[in-house]
Design brief:
Length: 284
């Protein structure tokens, strides 16, 4: 089945202009060319799209649906051409839970000032690659090693590990906690994208594990007091919530923050993004 943009533009023009004659004028072609183009589209799709009488032209039931799809396709193509020819590009950066924490606003503003022709978009995708493998972004921020040879990465900073707990939890009265304090508790983790595994504890003193797949569900469960969580400090900056407190885990290794991209197709802005994020994390 071959359907091209010329056919879709012709169909939309006929419907919008109300006749083959007026569609031909709008498109700058002959009326015969409009008739041939519509006929070829109907043959390709195998359905009749328009009812034509001596007085009017109206879409069939199938035609109404095809016209709606055609309008969306034509708008997307026009946007594509506009972006490609204007020199204005987008850089989408995916993240699973918490972007770059307290540096997020500074990153967005600094990027807008130094790269005004490249619009930065932060996209939340709760997958191991933070949307990179799914095609949702060109770069991704992740906080766990990504064992996939298709991708390359650079460490841009380090973040402390924090324990998230209900505000009335006995541990909440402390300024910091230890891994041993958490060992006897139930720990809520996201095995797909999270940074916490039981390997942080020695055998025999590991916490019980329950699974979650979303940061909002994670916070809601923790607020009940029945479980705790351990996360990168960026989560505390991104998701402050009444009833939840975060305390540093003073004997836990920090978490490396990585910027990841496709090895065979790094975006042109990758080095600029690495440099800016490294600078922001380096300034504390």
């Amino acid at each position: 089945m071959d359907v091209d943009l010329r056919q879709l533009r012709c169909l939309v023009a006929i419907v919008d202009e109300g006749s083959f004659t007026d569609a031909a004028i709008a498109l700058g072609v002959s009326q015969a060319a409009v008739s041939r183009t519509l006929a070829s589209l109907e043959r390709s799709l195998g359905v009749r799209l328009l009812r034509r009488t001596s007085r009017e032209v109206s879409p069939t039931g199938a035609g109404v649906r095809v016209v709606a799809h055609a309008r969306r396709v034509l708008v997307d193509v026009d946007d594509l051409v506009r972006d490609a020819t204007s020199g204005h590009v987008h850089l989408r950066i995916g993240y699973a839970w918490s972007a770059v924490g307290r540096h997020t606003l500074a990153f967005q503003r600094s990027w807008a000032e130094s790269h005004p022709r490249t619009e930065l978009q932060l996209v939340r995708v709760n997958s191991p690659s933070a949307g990179l493998a799914e095609g949702a972004c060109e770069l991704a921020v992740i906080r766990r090693p990504l064992d996939d040879r298709r991708f390359d990465s650079a460490v841009v900073g380090l973040e402390r590990r924090l324990c998230a707990m209900a505000s009335d939890d006995p541990l909440a009265r402390r300024r910091s906690v230890t891994l041993a304090d958490i060992g006897g508790r139930t720990l809520l983790v996201d095995r797909r994208t999270g940074t916490t595994t039981t390997d942080l504890w020695p055998p025999g003193s590991r916490p019980a594990i329950k699974d979650t797949h979303d940061v909002d569900d994670w916070l809601t469960a923790i607020s009940t007091g029945r479980c705790v969580g351990m996360t990168a400090e960026s989560t505390a900056h991104q998701y402050p919530r009444p009833g939840i407190v975060y305390r540093p885990v003073r004997d836990a290794e920090p978490i490396a923050v990585r910027l990841v991209w496709w090895r065979d197709g790094p975006p042109p802005s990758v080095h600029a993004a690495i440099e800016l994020l490294t600078t922001l994390y380096g300034t504390g």
